[in-house]
Amino acid sequence: MATLSRVGVAVGFLAGWTVAQAGDEETLAISRLEALPCSGKTIGERLAEEILKHSRRDLGWRIFEGEGYRDLERSLRVSKAMEIRYRWRSRASGVPEPISEAAKGLCP
Known about the structure:
It is built from four helices and six strands. By secondary structure, it is an alpha+beta fold.
């Protein structure tokens, strides 16, 4: 849950929104994504494994709005100079699709 509290801050910084404006809808979109099946588990469970298994620092969720879609991105710090970004594109009519190589590789 600590990760979800960072959503408002990240979204507010990137999109110029206040934390209050970035709450329920974005949190719901992330919760839906994390609950999707992924290699016998959920996406949320697989991301948690990646963080613990490789001792990566969780930088939280970021949300990017576009025309007719929303990108949901989870960033993990690997080293001072490197991050892994798991990004999915969510359209109003369907299930989020992985668009980054890391997200595509998460659920083989």
